[in-house]
Amino acid sequence: MYNKYLDIFIEVADTGSFSKAAEKLYVSSTAIMKQMNLMEQF
Hints:
Number of helices: 3
Largest sheet: none
Number of strands: 0
Shape: globular
Strand content: under 5%
Distance between the termini: 17 Å
Number of domains: 1
Radius of gyration: 9 Å
């Protein structure tokens, strides 16, 4: 089972930064923050 939220969480944890994770995942840092906020609701 693939979970994009988990991929984002792991990338943020590995890089230590929303902006660095966003660069590696080719999305904006705002998108990363929104996904992390959604994940917190689970």
